[in-house]
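Re: your question about Diaminobutyrate--2-oxoglutarate transaminase

S., sorry for the slow reply, the queue was backed up all week. Below is exactly what I fed in.
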Amino acid sequence: MSTQVFETLESNVRSYSRSFPALFNKAKGSHLYTANGDAYIDFLMGAGALNYGHNNEYIKQQLLAYMAEDNIMQGLDLFTVAKSEFITAFNDLLLKPKGLEYKFQFCGPTGTNAIEAALKLARNYTKRSNVIAFMGAYHGLSQGSLALTSNQYHRQVAGVGLHNVTFLPFENNGPAGFDSLAYLELMLEDTHSGIEKPAAVILETVQAEGGVNVASPEWLRGLKQICEKHGILFIADDIQIGCGRSGDFFSFEEAGIKPDIVVLSKSLSGYGLPMAMLLLKPELDIWQPGEHNGTFRGYQLAFIGAKAALEFRRDTGLEAAVKQKASYIERFLKEELAAADERIVIRGRGLMWGIDLSSFEDPLLAKKVAQQSFQDKLIVECVGRHDKVVKLLPALTIEQETLDQALNILQRHITANISSGASAKKVHA
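Result:
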């Protein structure tokens, strides 16, 4: 089979297939398989939609059993058994034990749909239009969420002005010594700041597409305190770093804060099925019937998969396993890889890590590493400013042997490229 049909008939907007030009057919666990049987280690994992691995066996069996009984597949927002069981399980297994009280709003079917709902609700509740977002943020590409997304490459094709958003530097991403929280406080208190009091502040606790930039617990707590002081809603975008990827199910748990609105999608369904929802504090639920909807907010298979994912997480001790693997990866990246060259910067949390190669003279170094890794049967993407950060996003269920294999591939190609670059510079001199 050929990839010519895609070159001929699929839109130029396609993206990942340009970096990984193979014809994929099957997948299991941490591996993708091409039509001719080649196995690739997957460190992309559906851009974070497959935390539990490809075709997780436990979740798959729950889905097959549900379908075998001719149960309802599409329910809009009707009352259904599948939705009832998911809400109950999520509340009992996650929210109650963590002391969280939220109402559920189902959006459909992707993360950007839920971001749009969060924005609409925050503005309607506060009667204010401005929103604070952060440089390096990625919240989606539909019109409202695009206004929150900082990448100029994405923003330039909007076709209309992107307004009602004020951007601030993320923690440690501004000028040396710049305190973004102090600046935010100044903006809010100075009557001559020229900035409208915002309806909400929205952020990813770990900016994924922005270069794996990690907010500290202290910084998050400070931001939440400012929001509470000024009556500003705090929206946590947990679309990619949530659902267990940080180690905890919610990425904000480590900071001990309780966002006003939490946005979830990607791995929420457990199986790569489209599903998105908001968790909102009860007092924020001022919606009137039908004010916000979406045809696929009632995709029943997603509810079945999401409930099964919570059970799988509980029954396999996944949280402890993720934290153990996170420590292992951090040690390897910092002690085995970065120790070889001080220009290599490592950032990450849980099972999301970034190898920042932006300090090297070669502006394409990270892309070269990703391309060479793909030739060695490892799928890994580049993110951040000018795609200079190699982003590691393995399955939470990855086996140790597979993890070691992937890390060794990355180390080999980074080391080889750094060495060849240094040799070339020496010869030129």
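The chain has two domains: 4-56+318-428, 58-315. The chain is about 40% helix and 15% strand.

Happy to talk it through on Thursday.
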